[in-house]
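debug: dumping io for the single-chain case to check the tokenizer round-trip. Nothing else runs in this session.
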Amino acid sequence: TSTGNGHWHLSWSATFADWILESSQMVKSMSWTNRGVVPVVSGSTASVDITDSAPYTFYRLRKP
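debug: decoded output
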């Protein structure tokens, strides 16, 4: 969810709270960057607030 001016609130199932959030400028990239964030778990949801200024950023969760 966009919270304005390049700020984003990402959320996912708390089942995957220990997975690593990664980002890339290209979805088919071989190089993804660990965002180094720890999600806040509330009930059954894990979430983070991040800032990104690039025109397109793709995110994925990777099992550690």
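debug: round-trip ok. The mean pLDDT is 93.
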